[in-house]
């Protein structure tokens, strides 16, 4: 029958391994990857909406400026019809030409903005079509993580429920030594396998092996002369 201290060590080693596994679950990385995809998607959506707002404002300003130019140009053209002096007519015509050029520039800018607006609206439509797929991927990854974590937590609970009983079976003085060793060694109690300590994996000399065997025979346990762990056979 296995010594109670080894059963306690095995249970706590299993708990350590489960906790280590829980902290490094691949499912956790998959949840973070899915979350990052949603974040990038949301950022892209926000940038598109921001750009569409800027373009809408730009188009509105171009149209307003265009109306003002048209009003001013119509006024000048009306004046030109009543002007007799060539110099004044030339000045009016020059100003009308400048306004027409400015109007043409505004039209070109507005057309470019409208084209950008259409392109971004198409891109936004395509982007919005990805939302459900991305959210489903995140929900699925999160559910997978929760399922694995729940299984591990259940096993940790079962181990925790056993620990008090296992500790009660160990001699109090030995348990005190074990707890002290566990403070700085993951494995505090282990076995002697041939001439090797299974804790530090070092081979003991023939003399050390004999001493350890004698101590185990007398006291049930011994200390590894190499690492200080509790040794049993």
Topology:
Layout: H1 4-23, H2 26-82, H3 86-128, H4 131-168, H5 172-182, E1 189-193, E2 196-197, H6 206-219, E3 222-223, E4 230-232
Parallel strand pairs: 1-4
Antiparallel strand pairs: 1-2, 3-4
What does this entry show, briefly?
With 233 residues, the chain is mainly alpha-helical. Helices cover 79% and strands 5% of the residues.
Characterization of this structure:
The structure is a single chain. Strands 2-1-4-3 form a 4-stranded mixed sheet. With 233 residues, it is mostly helical. The protein has helices at 4-23, 26-82, 86-128, 131-168, 172-182, 206-219; strands spanning 189-193, 196-197, 222-223, 230-232. It is rod-shaped. The protein has 2 domains: 10-168, Helix Hairpins; 172-232, no CATH class.
Name its key features.
mainly alpha, four-stranded mixed β-sheet, 6 helices, 2 domains, single chain, Helix Hairpins, 233 residues
């Amino acid at each position: 029958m296995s010594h109670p201290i080894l059963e306690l060590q095995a249970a706590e080693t299993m708990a350590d391994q489960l906790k280590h596994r829980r902290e490094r679950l691949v499912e956790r990385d998959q949840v973070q990857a899915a979350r990052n995809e949603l974040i990038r998607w949301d950022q892209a959506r926000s940038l598109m909406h921001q750009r569409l707002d800027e373009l809408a404002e730009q188009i509105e300003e171009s149209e307003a400026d265009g109306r003002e130019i048209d009003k001013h140009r119509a006024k000048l053209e009306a004046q030109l019809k009543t002007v007799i002096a060539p110099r004044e007519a030339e000045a009016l015509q020059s100003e009308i030409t400048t306004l027409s050029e400015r109007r043409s520039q505004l039209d070109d800018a507005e057309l470019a903005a409208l084209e950008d607006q259409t392109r971004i609206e198409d891109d936004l439509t395509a982007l919005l079509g990805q939302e459900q797929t991305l959210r489903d991927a995140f929900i699925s990854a999160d559910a997978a993580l929760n399922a694995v974590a729940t299984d591990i937590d259940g096993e940790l609970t079962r181990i925790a429920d056993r620990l008090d009983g296992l500790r009660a079976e160990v001699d109090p003085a030995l348990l005190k030594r074990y707890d002290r060793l566990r403070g700085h060694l993951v494995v505090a109690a282990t076995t002697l396998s041939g001439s090797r300590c299974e804790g530090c994996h070092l081979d003991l000399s023939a003399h050390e092996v004999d001493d350890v065997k004698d101590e185990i025979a007398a006291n049930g346990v011994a200390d590894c002369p190499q690492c200080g762990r509790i040794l049993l056979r």
